[in-house]
Amino acid sequence: MSEFKITTDSGGLNQALFEVTHGLYVLTAVRGGRATGHSPNGQCLDAAMQITNAPPRIAIGVGKKSLTHEMIVETGKFMLNTIDREDSEAADVVRRFGFQSGRNVDKFADFPYEEGENGAPILPDAKAFYECTVLPEFTVDLVTHTLFVASVDRAGTKEDGEPLTYNEYRKNMRKRR
Questions:
Q1: In whole angstroms, what is the distance from residue 118 CA to residue 124 CA?
Q2: What per-residue confidence (pLDDT) applies to 172?
Q3: Residue 71, class by beta-carbon neighbours within 10 Å (0-12 exposed, 13-18 middle, 19+ buried)?
Q4: 3-state class of 156 per DSSP?
Q5: What's the rounded Cα separation, in Å, for the pair 5 and 18?
Q6: Where are the alpha helices (DSSP H) in 46-171?
Q7: Is the pLDDT score of 36 beyond 60?
Q8: DSSP readout, 97-124?
Q9: End-to-end CA distance of the chain
């Protein structure tokens, strides 16, 4: 049995945190609550978890510098789309939403989506989606990020497919880039 590699420096701690398992999602939002007439935005997100099931609530951690963060603060609404690991285009989805800024490029240009009831995009090839409303009383300022706790108002799931985990993406999907 191998020994633990003990670390206290920030680079080593960040590397160790890659062992925390969680999903990989596309977080979407829109200004003004409707995509019509407004450009939606999205970003890859791995900081998401279910908090309670009754009532249904999730928490997401979003970097404050992102355009998606700005839109969520403005509207109090977002959509969390679970990336399907069986989707042959999953790596392209991660590249589109994870490796460029919505401040510089329209990430939804020539990209199909459905508009959710809250106006935020639903990715048609997602394994599942969660349409959410932020609960301001539970929002936490984490200096560089905001922790949003939100009610899950509506959700959609597909029987086929499997959620893509961040660890799986790092180990397998990045090799295909």
A1: 16
A2: 77
A3: buried
A4: strand
A5: 14
A6: 67-75, 90-98, 166-171
A7: no
A8: HHSS-TTTS-TTTT---EE-TTS-EE-T
A9: 34
